[in-house]
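Reopening this one. Same input as before:
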Amino acid sequence: MKTVSVNSFVTRQIKGSGKSYAILTSYSEMALWAEQEINKTSGNVINGYRDGVVLVIIDDDRVKNFVSPLIKIDENTELLAKWQQRRPDEDYYIHVSAKSGDHAPVGKVELILYSHDVLAEDNEAETKADWELIAFNAIPVGIDKMPMNPVTMMRNQLHLQGGTQGYYSSEDWAEAIHFWQNYTTLD
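Same output, byte for byte:
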């Protein structure tokens, strides 16, 4: 049986963080749901951007426990740019968000799991579990696949501090940039 535990990186996803967050659902519950799905070999587990990364789609009845930070940008959206870091040991980057707006309703949620081996590449494995929950995305209604933020892709592809080695096609880059020109976070 494959095991799933919680990586501390996911714990930054709280209300007010500009990230997807959960209401009345703990990170441990999410890890348990992911572990159940991983061991079912169901259609709810799909490959991520590289070997050793998977996305677990949670049941529709649990989606109501999640909030997406995303809003659709329009001509009235006032944007704010900040120079910030995710963690103290990482490079600064420009984070763009909306000053106000309405959160997009959530249509589905993906739990993002990294294998122990992938996390071990950069000494980021925190447990001996086969998989660790490192993040989750509350995806707005009408969006089938939410591309990774281009800043995260850049950090991964260049294998900068905090990035997990990965390679993206030019189509992946174009889709990500196109998506993030139409949506932003509400911090």
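So the earlier flakiness isn't reproducible anymore. For the record, The helical segments are 27-40, 116-121, 150-157, 170-180.
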